[in-house]
Amino acid sequence: MLSLIVFLPLAVAVVVAAVPSLGAAAARWVWVAVSAVEVVLVGVLWAGYEDPGPNGLAFEEQVPWIPGVGSSYHVGVDGLSLPLVAMTAVIFLACAVYALRDGERPRAQTALFLFLQGVSLGVFVAADLIVFFVFFDLSIVGMYFVIAGWGHGNAARSALKFFLYTFLGSLALLLGFIGLYVASDPHTFDIPELVAATPLEDSPLAGGWCWRRSWWVWP
Fold first, then answer.
1. Is the pLDDT confidence value at 4 over 90?
2. Nearest CA among 184, 194, 191 for reference residue 57
């Protein structure tokens, strides 16, 4: 279910981008329809949610991805991430409905926002640090094009500043992830395993260094 929620908008975004004959009205309504389906799917997810307990995840999916470094495609939700997933789905549906009255490059906007919706949802369901990092950086790329294409004022300059600042922040994030990986035994990027193992628990200085870089945001 979670993979469907994440990859449905991405798949439709590819189709919309690949079909130049798609009309403006059709593109807009495709966006609304997909976003509405996403809200329904998240509603079904919410209705079937059961508390997985401490450090547990509901609707877990895990597939080997890069076993050499202890990374897998691992997704799931808990009591914190599920409301964020629901909020994301509702906000993107609101964006789709609002865009019905906007006639500026509808096909490009539809494809881009569906892409951004998919990767944003991926950020909140990721249960592996590498998967999280990939979705997070893809969301930065998506936001760059959104700002550059539909921003106000000097949109290109604003988009470039956003991209550079946020991308540098993501590099600091990656350093923190690598620190946790090196400190874990066995080495892993899996978030539940890291939570259970509590690496760097006996090293406050190194733990603080990794923590600050894992949550660092460029001012």
1. yes
2. 191
